[in-house]
Amino acid sequence: MTAPVNTDLTQLDAAELGRRLAAGETGSVELTQAYLDRIAAQDDVLGAYLHVDAEAALARAGEVDAARAAGAELGPLAGLPVALKDVFVTEGVPTTSGSRILEGWRPPYDATVAARLKAAGTVLLGKTNMDEFAMGSSTENSAYRPTRNPWDPDRIPGGSSGGSSTAVAGGLAPWALGTDTGGSIRQPAAMTGLVGHKPTYGSVSRYGLIAFSSSLDQAGPMARTVLDAAVLHEAIGGHDPRDSTSIDAPVPALVRSTQEGARGELAGLRVGVVRELGGDGHTDGYDPGVLDRVRETVELLAGMGAEVREVSCPAFDLALPAYYLIAPSEASSNLARFEGMRFGLRVGDDGSHSLEEVMSLTREQGFGPEVKRRIVLGTYALSAGYYDAYYGQAQKVRTLITRDFTSAFDDVDVLVSPTSPTVAWPIGARVDDPLAMYAADLCTLPASLAGLPAISVPCGLSEGLPVGFQVMAPALADDRCYRVAAAVEAALDATRGSRFLDELTQRTAA
Amino acid sequence: MSDTLVDYDETLTRYEPVIGLETHVELGTASKMFCGCATTFGAEPNTQTCPVCLGLPGSLPVANAAAIEATIRIGLALGCRIASWCRFARKNYFYPDIPKGFQTSQYDEPLCTAGHLDVEVDGETYRVEIERVHLEEDTGKNLHVGGATGRIHGASHSLVDFNRAGIPLVEIVTRPIPGAGAKAPEVARAYVSELRDIIQTLGASDVRMEQGSLRCDVNTSLAPVGSLEWGTRTETKNVNSLRSVERAVRYEMRRQAAVLDAGGRVLQETRHFHEDTGSTSPGRSKEEATDYRYFPEPDLVPIAPDAEWVDELAAELPELPVARRARLQQEWGLSVTEMAWLVNAGALGLVDATVAAGATPADARKWWLGELARRANDAGAELAELAVTPRQVAELTRLVAEGTINDQLARQALDGVLAGEGDPAQVVEARGLAVLGESDELVAAVEAAIAGAPDVVAKVQGGKVQALGALVGAVMKATRGKADAATVKRMLEERVVGS
């Protein structure tokens, strides 16, 4: 049997690549080079990366290969390339969070998740593009460049983790980390045909994740398969003493749950379909094709023995306004540290401006319009006299949404919905309409506000573009998300006779 | 611009003061409030920093448990109620010494509330109600370079030292204190002094005002005598010694009286205190108050101290200064006035430690309030700053009591101790200060004195026995005070009267 050519390597999932590395069928340098070649060939168009250091990646891959050759005991991830959303702080590697205000900053430390992946022997390919400070649903708010969807380069890849979604879907990385504040892992995963999981709030460390909205931000995996996502999640999860909000509990056995789910073991599973997320009377703004794929997927679950019922969560209708008060409020405070004095951009420091003017000029030129919009919104919502009416009220809505989840989970094990009301839209279609952009998060916001785990798994195509199926579970029951997603994935793969992303591979090859 | 001031006594004929104090205490924890950095005072700038206290993007705080415990103990010592659940809050504002663009503090959920502290001034007790005690982080320190004054005005540039950023800071806020009248400045001072002693006793901080580990903001307002409403207050910031606290209140009372006398309006503003002149000058106006946009800090979990643990902390509090004073006053048999002297001289702890090291209370008091107070005064220093320890003072008193030295020699021995020559016994040995027994040296000196003053000898033998004193003096002089006067007198009598 002849060795596969390099370009083929980039179409394989991480589990297979790991197997080949362990078996000596390929080396980390060869693998890394394959991805670097593909990045060099395609990223000018796709715009997935903000920073790639080929030399550093190959050097690192060489170290792993040398260690393996010397007979060292290596973990299952050793030698596997990975991409990180540019929101994660990486020691000595430029980190911008998609903003001009951090241009040129090389952090002096690693985010906990970056350190864990480094310790596991992974090879950092680069930092992926994102909406500035993770504020956006299309990656068009990146201060540097837009990212294109590999399924259709004229369409957005979702956001804010759109660089990561395009990198993985386009074969520019085997898997990647994203962050999800209101849907920023799940929605781009849905838009590009990936599996993306937002873990339970507090179950993956936020240390070194440049904060957008502290009470909502979570890091999580984006991958070509549910199994890859589970493996990556297990590698980054678990308690971190540097993050006070980190939960001191073991990471659930996600890989095992995935394997069980893939065998279709769903008998007795109670599945709730959320009426407020695309159900009767709540279909405005939803693509019919999206609703069709989701309905079919629910039927598929029923066919595997799940008990399906409709569940109503009335407070979910309030999720959007509540989110767009809480997240900007926290952001207005989190982004106060970018004043041009200690890192990144500084504007106007030529002796002719006062300190306050330098701070103002830096922020004026360093932040993009969406970031400014949210800082203004959040500053207003926290102001004396308005706090109770806005931030305080939004926190009450958050409590109501949590209660809706709690009572729903009295009756069902998981809740399901579309991940996004629509498929990927054309680049530029919503940039002048922030509210339309915000509406893209409709289905993902409730789990974010309640801090619950939720996964998006591909469930077919609509208008030739991927549709995501969302599975939400109670806090710390991330394993249920993986189990159900794996069942969906396995059943659809079996029906199709191929992996979901093979469709994209064939199209781009054609 | 110098302020018009009304005479202090005259001020009180027309106005009644209300004061209030906000005190910030840097806790003496080994590490900072939200990170593991050291808190050593005086280290090279920006050497005690990390991503967390520099507010680097991505960093997160972790609350220091020792600081929470120390704050609760301070609250307990002040009779406060300890919250069973409370949160940190973000106080948002821009300043270069605030690395995150907000200070992590507490807002509407302080850790300790509703306490009190009784202070005594001239035998009268004033109850100061404590509104709240909360925990926050200190800011960095700005260094303005190039100006004449070290202030930002006129400086060419400013540097920021983040070593102090993130040091745990406890803020203790009183309720307004009315009714102190003419004693208001002294009540303010006594409050800060008592608070300082309590925190020192708790071991929660070194409370050194000159190093800024205890800083005071003093609020003062005046209302016409008999008025039911209080006047507009000013907040004098960073008053950094006990004496300054008293002076700041006194100055503000006199200044505000002049403003009100002239039909003016006291502005609600922060003011700076000037040590050199004892005056205050306006800072920023509070009328255009900053909106700090407080909200609960989402990066930290709530503080929820277990009730049993709080009870344990309360039970384990050390003896507090007021109880200790009462006990020592009784043990030492002192009058109220004598006790007050000791306290005001800052000698209570020193005397107590000296007694603990073996001296009698009377001896210890005599030394600290007498000879040592005189020397401290001459040196312009505090008693505690003298280079002599209570143990050494106790040793001095023991050497005197044993007759090894007399008081005069003891003062010479003290010279040696202060000069760093070692403990009193070592100085006595090295300087040869011990009292002379009936030695050949002393016999020779006595005989020399007799031989040298035949006229005095004649007088004594002629019945004027008191003339013997001149001979005693001569011997003492010849032995440079090392002889025991009674011994010398006996030896002289034996030789002059007895023969």
Automatic annotation (TrEMBL), chain A:
Endpoints of the signal sequence: none
Keywords noted in UniProt: ATP-binding, Ligase, Nucleotide-binding, Protein biosynthesis, Transferase
Single biological process term from Gene Ontology: translation
Enzyme active site: K85, S160, S184
Span of domain Amidase: 30-481
GO molecular function list: ATP binding; glutaminyl-tRNA synthase (glutamine-hydrolyzing) activity; transferase activity
Gene3D superfamilies (alphabetical): Amidase signature (AS) domain
Superkingdom as given in the UniProt entry: Bacteria
Chain spans, region Disordered: 139-165
Transmembrane helix found in the keyword field: no
Keyword field contains Nucleotide-binding: yes
Family: Belongs to the amidase family. GatA subfamily.
HAMAP family hit by this protein: GatA
Subunit structure: Heterotrimer of A, B and C subunits.
Protein name, UniProt field: Glutamyl-tRNA(Gln) amidotransferase subunit A
Organism classification: Bacteria, Bacillati, Actinomycetota, Actinomycetes, Geodermatophilales
Automatic annotation (TrEMBL), chain B:
Reactions that this protein is recorded to catalyse: L-glutamyl-tRNA(Gln) + L-glutamine + ATP + H2O = L-glutaminyl-tRNA(Gln) + L-glutamate + ADP + phosphate + H(+); L-aspartyl-tRNA(Asn) + L-glutamine + ATP + H2O = L-asparaginyl-tRNA(Asn) + L-glutamate + ADP + phosphate + 2 H(+)
Asn/Gln amidotransferase domain boundaries: 349-496
Record InterPro entries: Asn/Gln-tRNA_amidoTrfase_suB/E, Asn/Gln-tRNA_Trfase_suB/E_cat, Asn/Gln_amidotransferase, Asn/Gln_tRNA_amidoTrase-B-like, GatB, GatB_Yqey_C_2, Gln-tRNA_amidoTrfase_suB_CS, Gln_synth/guanido_kin_cat_dom
Keyword vocabulary terms for this entry: ATP-binding, Ligase, Nucleotide-binding, Protein biosynthesis, Transferase
GO molecular function, one term: ATP binding
GO BP: glutaminyl-tRNAGln biosynthesis via transamidation; translation
Any Pfam family: GatB_N
Signal peptide: none
UniProt keyword annotation of ATP-binding present: yes
EC number: 6.3.5.-
Subunit details: Heterotrimer of A, B and C subunits.
Family, as annotated: Belongs to the GatB/GatE family. GatB subfamily.
Entry function: Allows the formation of correctly charged Asn-tRNA(Asn) or Gln-tRNA(Gln) through the transamidation of misacylated Asp-tRNA(Asn) or Glu-tRNA(Gln) in organisms which lack either or both of asparaginyl-tRNA or glutaminyl-tRNA synthetases. The reaction takes place in the presence of glutamine and ATP through an activated phospho-Asp-tRNA(Asn) or phospho-Glu-tRNA(Gln).
Protein name: Aspartyl/glutamyl-tRNA(Asn/Gln) amidotransferase subunit B
